[in-house]
Amino acid sequence: MFDKLAWIRLPRNVVVGHGVIDETAAAIDEVHLGGTPLIVTSPTPRRIAGERVAEQFEASVTVTVETASFAAVERVIEAARAEEVDFLVGVGGGKAIDIAKMASDELGMGFVSVPTAASHDGIVSGRGSVPEGDTRHSVAAEPPLAVVADTEIIADAPWRLTTAGCADIISNYTAVRDWELAHRLKNVEYSEYAGALSQMTAEMLVGNADSIKPGLEESAWIVVKALVSSGVAMSIAGSSRPASGAEHLISHQLDRIAPGAALHGHQVGVASVVTEYLHSGSAGRWRNVRDALADIGAPTTADELGITAEDFVEAMTTAHEIRDRYTILGDGVSREAAVEAATVTGVI
Ligand SMILES: NC(=O)C1=CN([C@@H]2O[C@H](COP(=O)(O)OP(=O)(O)OC[C@H]3O[C@@H](n4cnc5c(N)ncnc54)[C@H](O)[C@@H]3O)[C@@H](O)[C@H]2O)C=CC1
Ligand SMILES: O=C(CO)COP(=O)(O)O
Ligand SMILES: [Zn+2]
C-alpha cells in the first residue's frame, strides 16, 4: 500500500506593507474568523501594535507574556477559556507568536500572526519552539490563518531585531546541510522542495544584502518576505528541519547556559559559522557564512554575542543531547574539536 501522506498547512492571507496593522480586522474577517479575539503579546509590542489591533474589534481580551514556556501557554489557554474568546492573535516577537500558536492548537481555535519585528522565521510556521528542563521541544502548533506584517512598525523596531531575522535565514544553509546528512546517514525523511526553498531563501537574502540597511522600510519588506518563505519551507516539510539544524541546537543550549545573553537569530548565525566549518573544513564555506552575517551587521563571534568562549564551547559539546535530531554534531563533538572549530573560524 502507498503510505505517504503530506498535509501542508499554510496561511491563507499574508498581508505585508506600510500601515497594514490597521487592516488586521479586515484580513481576519476575510478568513471568516469572527467574534472576540484574545491578543497574546508582550509589553513593548502591546503598546506599539497590540492596542491598535484591539481597537479594531468591538470587544477583545489581551494577555501579556514575557517568556516562551509551557506555563505561559497554559496561562493563555486558561484566559481564552475564562473569557470565552473565539480566536487568538499573536502580536510581537517570536516568543509571543509561538505561545499564541501553541495555545490555539490546544484550544482548536484559529490563529493570526502579527509580527512586530523581523527577528525570526516563526511568523508563518506551524511550529512552536519551547524549552523544558534539559530539552528544547519543536512542537506542532496551529499555523496562522492570516499574517499581518506592517513594514512601518517593523522598520521602526530596533535594528538588531532585523539583523537577527537575517541571521536566522542565513542559518538555513547549514540547517539544510544537516538535514541532507541526516537523510543520507539516518534515512530521515527529506523534502527536496522544502530544502531547495529554504536554501534559495538564504541565497536571495544574501544577494539582497546591499538593500538591507537601518532606516529603510525596503529592508523590512525584503526580510519579512524571506521569513515568510522560510516558514513555508517548514510547513512543506512538516518539521523545522529546513530552518533548524546543529546551529539551532547550539543556540538552544546557549539559552540554557547563558540565558538572555543574545537574540535567537544572532546565536544561530554565529553557531552556523562553526557548524559550516564542521561540515566542510578549513577550505570550506564557513567564510561565506561569516561574511554574509558581517555584511548585514549581525554578530560573527561569541564575544559579540556577550557569551564567553568557555560557554560557547560547552554549548557545542553538549548541544547534541538537547533533542533527538541528527546533525553534523553526531553523537557529540569532543572539546578539542569544538575549540579547534571555534578558534579557526574566529568565533572564540
Ligand atoms: N516556531 C518557529 O518556527 C520559530 C520560533 N522561534 C523562536 O522565537 C524566539 C525568538 O524570537 P525573537 O523575536 O528573537 O525574541 P522575542 O520574542 O523575545 O523578541 C525579542 C524582543 O523584541 C521585542 N520586540 C518585538 N517587536 C518589537 C518592536 N517593534 N519594538 C521594540 N521591541 C520589540 C520583544 O518584546 C522582545 O523583548 C525564540 O524563542 C525562538 O526559539 C524562532 C524561529 C522560528
Ligand atoms: O528557530 C527555528 C527555525 O528558525 C525553529 O526552532 P526549533 O527547531 O526549535 O523549532
Ligand atoms: Zn531559528
UniProtKB/TrEMBL annotation:
Annotated positions binding Zn(2+): D168, H248, H264
Subcellular localization(s) per the UniProt record: Cytoplasm
The keyword Cytoplasm belongs to this UniProt entry's keyword annotation: yes
EC number: 1.1.1.261
Enzyme class: oxidoreductase
Keyword tags: Cytoplasm, Lipid biosynthesis, Lipid metabolism, Metal-binding, NAD, NADP, Oxidoreductase, Phospholipid biosynthesis, Phospholipid metabolism, Zinc
Keyword Cytoplasm on entry: yes
Name under which the protein is recorded: Glycerol-1-phosphate dehydrogenase [NAD(P)+]
Organism annotation: Halomarina halobia
Lineage: Archaea, Methanobacteriati, Methanobacteriota, Stenosarchaea group, Halobacteria
